[in-house]
Amino acid sequence: MGDWIADDTGLGYGGGAVVFGSALIVLAALYYWTSVSRVFLFWAAFILTRPLGATVGDFLDKPAAQGGLSVSRPVASIIILLAIVVLVAVLPQRPGRHPVASSS
Known about the structure:
Order of helices and strands: HHHH
Number of domains: 1
Structural class: mainly alpha
Helix content: 55-70%
Oligomer: single chain
């Protein structure tokens, strides 16, 4: 799906990353402001991370002539790893909240 968005629609790798990143933002908004099934939202986000990662990876390591940044794969992997580490460190981590069982 990531290759199709990037190659066949003409959006390129950066545009494809924006499409999948935007879709994840929509899912986050649905999580916070609606009562859409949390299971559905989890699996939708889980599925969208694959093409997002592939598109961002392609954007980093494809030649500039093909719309990429022409970074080597090992360096691109390190960039993505650092981004993940920073996001995990910066974004708040809290345990899930479970509904309290009603005492009958």
